[in-house]
């Protein structure tokens, strides 16, 4: 299956995978594994979830190397995506002011806000060792993925 076709199907795949499943941690864990396994040239796929009491993003389920445990709102690519509620595509993370280098080998990143019933609940974070890995098509497909995923979350 071509890379383009695989990415376009990812929202349908997560919807089918999580059909009638209601456990948030399990759903997020399988969603991260699906992304890491399905998308080429991804070194890390996972989630940071918003903790209202701490007013911070905390590491959720992921697939990849160990990661930063929490990220302040407005800091780094994840904190920026959450605060602005806009997907961030960073072709070269070394040029992103305030980038948080959880893995120094990462060269590009895309972060998609997760929104449920109008409320921000966290972000989907994808890293790559390649520069300029993420395209506008990836953004569209992964925003659809995020929309399908949050429908299965009880957050």
Radius of gyration: 14 Å
List the total number of helices.
Answer: 4
Question: In whole angstroms, how far apart are the ends?
Answer: 34 Å
**What structural class do helix, strand and pairing data support?**
alpha+beta
Give the overall form.
globular
Which percent range describes the beta-strand content? 25-35%
Helix content: 25-40%
The biggest sheet amounts to:
6 strands, antiparallel
- What string, H for helix and E for strand, traces the elements in order? HHEEEHEEEH
Mean pLDDT across every amino acid position: 93
Strand order of the largest sheet: 3-2-1-6-5-4
Question: Which residues sit in consecutive blocks of at least 5 with pLDDT less than 50?
Answer: 1-5
Q: How many β strands by DSSP?
A: 6
Describe this protein's structure:
The protein is α+β, with helices and mostly antiparallel strands. It is 35% helix and 26% strand. The chain is built from four helices and six strands, in the order H-H-E-E-E-H-E-E-E-H. It has helices at residues 3-17, 24-38, 76-84, 136-150, and strands at residues 44-51, 56-63, 70-72, 88-90, 108-116, 119-128. The chain has a six-stranded antiparallel β-sheet, sandwiched between helices. Helix 1 runs antiparallel to helix 2 (24-38). It is globular. The termini are far apart. Mean pLDDT is 93; it is low at 1-5.
């Amino acid at each position: 299956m071509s890379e383009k076709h695989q990415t376009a199907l990812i929202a349908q795949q997560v919807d089918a995978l999580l059909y009638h499943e209601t456990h948030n941690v399990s759903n997020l864990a399988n969603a991260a594994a699906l992304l890491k396994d399905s998308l080429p040239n991804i070194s890390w796929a996972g989630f940071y979830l918003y903790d209202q009491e701490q007013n911070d993003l905390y590491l959720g389920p992921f697939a990849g190397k160990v990661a930063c445990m929490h990220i302040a709102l407005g800091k780094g690519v994840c904190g920026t995506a959450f605060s602005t509620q806009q997907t961030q595509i960073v072709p070269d993370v070394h040029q992103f002011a305030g980038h948080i280098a959880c893995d120094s080998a990462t060269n590009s990143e895309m972060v998609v806000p997760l929104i449920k019933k109008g409320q921000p609940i966290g972000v989907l974070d994808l890293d790559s060792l390649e520069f300029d890995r993420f395209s506008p098509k990836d953004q569209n497909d992964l925003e659809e993925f995020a929309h399908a995923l949050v429908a299965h979350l009880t957050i």
